[in-house]
Amino acid sequence: MRDLLIVEQNNVIRYDDVSLSHLQETLEESKGLFWLDLEQITDEDAAFLSDFKEFGAHPLSVKACREASTRPYSAVFPGHLFIVLHVQESLDAPPVKLGFFLAPDYLITIHSTPLALLKEVKDRIHQDAQLMRSTDLAVALIMQTIADRQDPLISELTAETITPDQDVEARWIYDTQRRLIDMIHLVKPQCEIVHSLYAGEKLSLQPDTIVQLQDAYYRFRNMADALTRSWEMLNDGATAVQTKALRRIDASARRLTFLVAMLLPVLVLSVLLGIDEPLVNNAVKPVVVGVGLAVSLLVAVVLVLTARKR
Question: What backbone phi and psi angles, to 5 degrees, belong to 4?
Fold first, then answer.
């Protein structure tokens, strides 16, 4: 699917799901800024991005947009800036990779699944052309909208709190920590990339763009800090749960030790009294019984003392 927004003389022309031939013809005739949003990029789209004279997209950048496991990063190419980051619109859905080709006169976004946040931005620009009076301002608006979408998710993830004496399952702590870590790995690159946009010298940005990107950066950083604090809190809870488990194991071991200490003399005595040899009965048996009882009692006492010290 190819959506196109063109801003000319403070007017917005919007094409939804435009054909590739119509897209090329429109872009060749257009004199304004445009935003091309590609969903589920095809081989024809990839070739168009590489061959169209306005773009000249690097083949490795186009390939990175199509691969499932591309890490977030940004790179500078002649004439444009390339960015890959991941966004998440709900906790039940997997993160979606979002690629940007940003140049002074065009913006291209690429993603494999629908993103409601991009539709929201396109609708807003369609209503107010001033929101895309420069392509970098449109990118700043997208970053702000990503933060708007993720704020409730972070609040939901960090809402669960536990106290050290609270009885919770270790599995619940592990699952929650894993979700927190996954979100941290999503938000931190967003924070770093947005910071590099306005702090570096990759593009000549509008003053309004810098302000919006700075705001988005601090929002992403606050999200990362909140997630980290929640993870550390759960880590303390996990330590408490492990301590309780060890105490229960220790208490069970002490009960078992006392039981063995009590039963050992009885078992030894039963074995010794069960010997039925005449020689043992007449001479050796009393000595063996005495020694056996003494040794078993000594072992029992040692076991009891050891259990009390644990």
Answer: -135, 130
Q: Give the model confidence (pLDDT) of 192-249 as tens digits.
A: 999 998 887 666 788 899 999 999 999 999 999 999 988 888 776 666 555 555 456 6
Q: Is the distance from CB of 75 to CB of 6 less than 8 angstroms?
A: no
> ∠ CA(21), CA(24), CA(26), 5° rounding?
105
* Domain boundary pick from 242, 267, 294: 242
Using CA atoms in the order 173, 176, 178, 179, what is the torsion angle rounded to 10 degrees?
180
Say if residues 268 and 306 touch (Cβ distance below 8 Å): no
- Residues 31, 140: one domain? yes
The encoded tokens of residue 306 equal 């050891």
Q: Are residues 107 and 213 in the same domain?
A: yes
Quick: pLDDT tens for 270-310: 555 565 555 545 554 565 556 556 656 666 665 556 655 55
Handedness of CA 132, 137, 138, 144 (dihedral sign): negative
Q: Are residues 84 and 131 in the same domain?
A: yes
HSE-CB at 38 with a 13 A cutoff on CA atoms is 22
Label the pairing between strands 33-39 and 106-111: parallel
- What span, in angstroms and rounded, lies between the C-alpha atoms of 142 and 162? 35
pLDDT score at 125: 95
Sign of the CA dihedral running 211, 217, 218, 220: positive
CA distance linking residue 12 with residue 121, whole number of Å:
13
H/E element, 65: helix 59-66
Using left for φ > 0, alpha for ψ between -120 and 50, and beta otherwise, residue 56 falls in: left
Identify whether residues 142 and 229 lie together within a single domain: yes
The C-alpha atoms of residue 105 and residue 267 are separated, in whole angstroms, by: 92
Three-state SS at 75: strand
- How far is Cα 61 from Cα 110, in angstroms, rounded to an integer? 11
Cα separation, 50 vs 201, in Å, equals 25
